[in-house]
Every structure is written in structure tokens, then in C-alpha cells.
Amino acid sequence: MKIQRIAAETTTEAAPDAVWALLSDRSTWPSWSPLGSHSGVRPGRDGAPDGLGGIAQFVTGRNCVREEIVEREPPRRLSYALLSGLPLRNYRAVVELTPTGTGTRIRWSASFFPGRPGTGWIYRLVLTRIFRGMVTGLAAAARD
């Protein structure tokens, strides 16, 4: 099976620090994204809920996913890996914030291998739609 790649991006008038404040606090994600409820499972190694190594769970409809923060570069980059909840292997997402004049470009991307042959296209389609909701929701929330 070949690796699948997806991405969505947008630009907001909000400064990178304002975008980072929302992005780096996963408890806010359900308020501005298509995701359902959030719960912290394990804090990061530094004791912060969303620090490096921190694990969170999101429940959206019948899906329950667990994700671990694997990279943090405030206020520019946040990466997480899927631990469970979707039939995907080696799933890793990266959110990059790039200053643009007085605003911020938000790029949310991921790569993964489908768990079963022939299913990559459906996960690309569904996750791209979710990512579009993530970037537009984050951009709007950071502006407010």
C-alpha cells in the first residue's frame, strides 16, 4: 500500500500567537472544529495537558480517537500521531503556522497508510473535509 497525504490551508488576520493559543490547547478544538468532545488521557512529560507526549481523546459521533503530541515548536508547529480509533497506520499530522504580514497562514497536513487495501481514497476524502473544517474554524476563532 502506498502512503496517503492530505492537507488543507487558509490564512487568518490573527497573529501567530493568537492562533497558537487555540491550537496548543486541545480542549478548545471541539469549540471551533468539526470534532466532538475532548478529554485528556495523559499529560505531557512537562506536566502540561498538551505538552510533548500528552495524549488526548476526541469522540465525534461513533468515532473515538486517541492522539499523542509528538512535536511542539511554539508558536510555529504542532505534530501529533494517531494512537487508536481509525484503521490507519503511521498516521502523523502536522499543523504549521507561518506569519504573513499581520496575519497567519495555517496549514494542517497528514500522512498515513490505510489499514486495508483499497481504503486510502475514502480516508483521504473524509479527512481532507475534516481538515478544511479545522483550518477554517481555527482561523475564525483566532480572529474573534
UniProtKB/TrEMBL annotation:
<dbReference type="InterPro" id="IPR023393">
    <property type="entry name" value="START-like_dom_sf"/>
</dbReference>
<dbReference type="Pfam" id="PF10604">
    <property type="entry name" value="Polyketide_cyc2"/>
</dbReference>
<protein>
    <submittedName>
        <fullName>SRPBCC family protein</fullName>
    </submittedName>
</protein>
<dbReference type="InterPro" id="IPR019587">
    <property type="entry name" value="Polyketide_cyclase/dehydratase"/>
</dbReference>
